[in-house]
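Sample entry (325 residues):
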Amino acid sequence: MDKIKQNPIVRKLGFNRIILFFVLILMYILFSVAIPGFSSMARVRDIFNYIYFLGFLSLGVTFVIATGGIDFSIGPVMFCCALISGYCLNSYHVPLALSMLISILIGLLFGVFNGYLVAYWRVPPFIISMASMNIAKGLASVFTKSQSVSWPQSGDAGGAGVFRNIVSVNGFPTGLVIFGAAALLCGIVLYNTKAGRYILCLGSNREAVRLSGVDTKRWEMLAYVICGTLVGIAALFFVAAYTTVQPGYGDQYNNEAIAGCVMGGTSMVGGLASIGGTVLGVFIISLLQEGILAFGMGKDVQLILTGFIVIAAVYADVLARRRKN
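Predicted structure, serialized as tokens:
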């Protein structure tokens, strides 16, 4: 096993990512054999639709976890972005482009709020994310008067449904291209920029970074701002795929996004993150979700399995750190 891990190609690609890739392929084969029609284009499209919004959530929370923090508000904030911007579009007749921008700005503002309180006020991330989760739910309910919001369909008059092209154009998965480009950009930021290196260093040894003269508060806050912005984008992909959003929901996507992130090799204590691993983790979570539904089992089964996946991924991280030490 050690010889395999030391192979130059394996080291370049990452042993963990290679394992995840084969797990993904094996899962797809097993589901395709066990479930008639699972490999149909309709099923594949459903899997992709889930990947898009969950992928942006996972990319965002990867930056936060890399600092040693956590954000359990990403799901409700995503719904808050979709609800408020959709309500502006429908009730106040705000132009489509501006409504989409509002969604991203709301996510960004939540990122600024969370990041400022965590970085500058030193409030524990867990407490802030719990508070933000409740604020997002309440704000969305108040703004929309506790009503669900539906975004335009593809064929609606006025061409407002054109925003759905971010998910698919004539059957071509444009959402996959956009998500791939976003993941590539996140990888460049995290591994090849000063901001990314400082974010990772914060999770490794915050005090050493501070003593070296780096403004740790600035870079820690940036991680939350990036996360919030990606959550606002995730909201657009959610409504492009599923149309209707209801107030008070979104919690279930927190664990799924974090599970995809941690499964991919991002350490829960910070300092180590893998954008490529996060992408593979998101694919596995989305495939598992669709497979469970195809088997006729409910969402509760998926929540149970996701919980066990998080435990297994965190335990694997603990073992890896013990070996390293």
